[in-house]
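Thread: "does anyone have the structure for this chain?"

Original post by V.I.:
We have the sequence but no experimental structure in hand. Need at least a predicted one for the grant figures.
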Amino acid sequence: MTLRSGRQDNERSRFRPVLAALSLVLAAGCGAAGCGAPAAVPSADRPDRAQRIVSLDFCADQYVLKLAGPDRILALSPHATAEFSYMRDAAQGLPQVRPIAEDALVLQPDLVVRSYGGGPNAAAMFERAGVPVLQVGWAGDLPGIRRVTEDMGKGLGAEAQAAEILADMDRRLGELRQTGERSGPRLDTLYVTPSGATTGAGSLVHEILQEAGLANFEQRAGWRSLPLERLANTQPDLVAAAFFDSPGQKHDRWSSMRHPIAQAQLKTRPVVDLPSAWMSCGAWFAVDAVEALSRAAVRAEENRR
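Reply from O.Q.:
Generated one for you, tokens below.
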């Protein structure tokens, strides 16, 4: 016999009516649409067997789309096909669900994958409903990307695919290190966004610049506004412009990027465009940014000769 605390019983009692109502909604919809019977929910310790996966945010979408076939995807987040979603082409035509726990539960998933989708209380709600949750970890550097990719591969039952992703990433980085060795000093590169943000050491952006054989123009650690006073006297060799392809980022009237000094960097310095899809999540596609920056560095050095 399993003993439960009074608090646990109360929580389950309060949640049963919600699940019952959600089941009725689903049953009504299936009666009209002819839905098949849902797959069995896997045990909490083997979520990798899930055949009905719901992803609740676009960072989770990337791993689900990459590591789980479309036949296992029950629904993705509303941002799965947005311009800042790296796997947006693979998401075309797949169902989407609002990142709300109740909406996800209506679908009766075997597994929910999330990094932040559903809000701070979502994991507890899914736990009470008996639905396993695969949490996407934070990757603030390249070792972090490796760790998260391995964890997601294990959690989705796709260890071999995850290993292939990392092997390709290692191969490409290795080739850049061999061909990117330069005799002169590293080119100073300023990372900018439409909101006027830049970053120094302690960020994935900083490590991407380092891997590309570049020096970070921002000398202070962490995220901060563009150093306009310094830019008035010292210019970078390169500008790495990220998120400028995202329409929602272009209308920030308070951004320091609107300042003439900041605008001059985009007009007078070599610019490397980094699509938002490369930079929105810390994942395996960060190597795309490394390659683009490395190629730009080679061109800039050739032009200076």
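V.I.: this helps a lot. The radius of gyration is 23 Å.
O.Q.: and Residues 6-33 form the longest helix (28 residues).
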